[in-house]
Amino acid sequence: MPDWLIIRTFWDLTVTGLALGSIYALVALGYTLVYGVLRLINFAHSEIFMVGTFGSLLASSQFLNIPLLEDGNYPYRAGMTLIFFLVVILIIAMVFSGISAVLLERVAYRPLRGNGDSIGAVALAFLTAFIVSLIFIDDTQVNVIISLVLTAPIAYSYLRIFKRGRKAPRLAFLISAIGASTAIAEAVGVWGTHGRDQYQTARILEKKTVFNLFGTDVRIDYVIVIVGALLMMTALTLFVNKTRLGRGVRAVAQDAETSRILGVNVDMIIIVTFALGGVMAGGAAMLFTLVYDQTRFNIGFILGVKSFTAAVLGGIGNLKGALLGGLVLGLVENYGSAIFGGQWKDVIAFTVLLVVLMFRPTGLLGESLGKARV
Amino acid sequence: MLLEVTDLHVFYGRIEAIKGISFGVGEGEITTLIGANGAGKTTTMRTISGVRTVTQGSVIFDGQDITKMAPHDRVKLGICQAPEGRGIFPGMTVRENLDMGTYVRGGDSAQKAADLAHVFHLFPRLEERISQLGGTLSGGEQQMLAIGRALMSRPRLLLLDEPSMGLAPMLIAQIFEIIKQINSEGISVLLVEQNATQALRVAHRGYVLETGYVVKDGSGHDLLEDPAVRAAYLGG
Fold first, then answer.
1. Is A251's Cβ below 8 Å from some Cβ in B?
2. What pLDDT shows up at residue A116?
3. Do A251 and B50 touch (CB under 8 A)?
């Protein structure tokens, strides 16, 4: 057998590839869910993931008060304390991402659907005033006051526009998505004096080897990521197939008009969809910080594009496809970088996407959220 | 009157599809709207279900003004529709499609089981196909499923939009039999049809729609005998 890098490290690459792929898959679910229900690519979903990583950062550093280093060592925890801390961090990350996903829908998308409500109009008016005042004045407090004053008249005019009940063209949703994405990332980037720096997250999990797979040591954090992602995906699948709201999500994805006729509150279902995608992204964010111990305001961008690739690869709108696409992408990236070198990683990922789409334009498993009966 | 529509105006995009129609559905009656393609029948039905916005006029259901009510609240009041083109969820099984009929009600599985048994009694075919995906059913079976699904919501007013569309004559006769049977159980029916002969035969009351206006109304029997209606809609 030739002594190639890929053969020597095959199992190692497989394990890390599956772990990375699981994170892609979790984020991909958010793209796929929203696409299934609204036929909209929510480009700001990458920033929902980013907010989740900051959620887990704040959870460990502020809420649980864990220092980065204790007497020069990592603040390792063990036993029930460890599990409790991990669960708390997970929940906080999910809450951060879930809430920001719902807010995103309300501010950036719902007004464009032609049924913007007064809360969305006020929020949007405040943001507009704030951004405009930033151009002229540098003092945050003054800006907030100015925007508060301007909110009422701007909100009134937004409401007048929304009330016409006209749906914006598809392109407007796309622009709104890209705008929201940049706005969220930059908002985190300007926060504090070191907003654009890399943040370290506390390393409470000692990354020990748990077992040996064909001569490769498998670390505990990779096991947690893969198992955790599978559990979350199973929970999502059960929710979508077995609960009333989940059935509503599938119904709206298959036929929104008939769903409304049968009494499904479509606005409600859209909120649920964004929340589900956000919670999955929050879980992905916590698992991400578990492995990499760091985050940054622009961390969502490349990971988001990759996850979107995973969703398209598996067949966007298809829950099983998101899982398959994520895992395939994680593995291909890892194997590819062993063959061609690490700097080719992204080239390989997107080449795979292009090739798959050439032969199977609907992705590996095809479209449709409703048909996804995992 | 269970449902009273007065001077209804509805736009479909920039076109005024409904230009001030008035009609009513009596409690326990079958009422039919007949008319050619583009007369505004489907728009009227969707407006009653609440998925089209009314620009002028009112819709009163059982004495309550529902002109601006959200669709899901109307289903709660007892208005449910088997829409044009059947609207079967293709990726859901027959069972899941029927469950969508009870979406607004939620809970109470005993009542659901009773409703399900009732629907299977009306449409034994659906029980045979219970775990089959909706998209794989034949046209007739899909129509049965659409009506069954609407019945699962325990409606007081059942809206049926072109139930005979694309079906073989044998099946059409069967569907109309079942409509009569549903009505005999006390459910009021508003029926939109291009198949005017059949519709007027079962209907207590009929309205003829032409390009957004009601041009004629009367009992089903009278309209069947009316020479102008015969010439225009019943093939002479």
1. yes
2. 61
3. no
Write the residue in A257, A263, A373 that is nearest to B75 by C-beta: A263
Of B48, B70, B46, nearest to B59 by C-alpha is B48
Query: Is residue A117 over pLDDT 80?
Result: no
| 3-state DSSP percent of chain B in helix, strand and coil, to 5 | 40, 30, 30
- CB contacts of A371 in chain B (<8 Å) are 90-91
Structure tokens at A231: 């559990």
CB-based contact, A318 to chain B, within 8 Å: no
Kindly state whether residue A371 falls inside one of the protein's structural domains. Answer: no
CATH code (residue A190)? 1.10.3470
Kind plus residue range of the DSSP H or E element containing B165: none
How many Å apart are CA B141 and CA B122, to the nearest integer?
A: 12
| Residue A313 placed within a domain | yes
Nearest to A258 among B83, B96, B153 (CB): B83
Q: pLDDT (tens digit, 9 = 90+) per residue, A211-226?
A: 877 777 888 889 999 9
Phi and psi torsions of A32, nearest 5°:
-70, -40
Is the pLDDT at A373 greater than 50? The verdict is no
CA neighbours closer than 13 Å in the CB half-sphere of residue A310: 34
Q: Which member of B72, B75, B92 has the closest CB to residue A250?
A: B92
Which residues in chain B are closer than 8 Å to A368, comparing Cβ atoms? Answer: 91
* pLDDT confidence band for A367 (50 / 70 / 90): low
Q: Which residue has the tokens 């050619």?
A: B36
Distance CA A111, CA B10 (A): 23
Tokens of A271: 């909120």
Looking at the structure of chain A, the number of domains it has is: 1
ipTM of the assembly?
Answer: 0.92
Tokens of B98: 């029927």
Residue among A9, A247, A218, A139 nearest B149 (CA):
A247
What is the pTM for the complete model shown?
0.89
CA distance B81 to chain A (A): 7
Neighbours of A152 (CB within 10 A): 12
What b/e string do you get for B173-198 counting C-beta neighbours within 10 Å, with b at 16 or more? ebbbebbeebbeeebbbbbbbbbbeb
Q: How far apart are CA A298 and CA A65, in angstroms?
A: 25
From residue A119, alpha-carbon distances to A107, A144, A152, A238 in Å are 9, 18, 12, 32
d(CA B123, CA B119): 6
Q: Assign 3-state DSSP to chain A and report helix, strand, coil percentages, each to 5.
A: 75, 5, 25
Report the residue of A164, A241, A258 to disrupt the B interface, i.e. the one with the largest count of B CBs within 10 Å: A258
Average pLDDT rounded to a whole number, residues B148-152: 95
The helix/strand/coil state of A7 is: helix
Q: Is the pLDDT of residue A374 over 50?
A: no
In a domain, A292, yes or no: yes
Using a CB-CB distance cutoff of 8 angstroms, which residues of chain B are in contact with residue A260? 49-51, 71-72
**Contact criterion met (CB < 8 Å) for B80 and A255:** no
Domains parsed from chain B with CATH numbers = 1-78+159-169+183-236 (3.40.50.300), 87-154 (no CATH)
**What is the distance between the alpha carbons of residues A82 and A77, in angstroms, rounded to a whole number?**
5
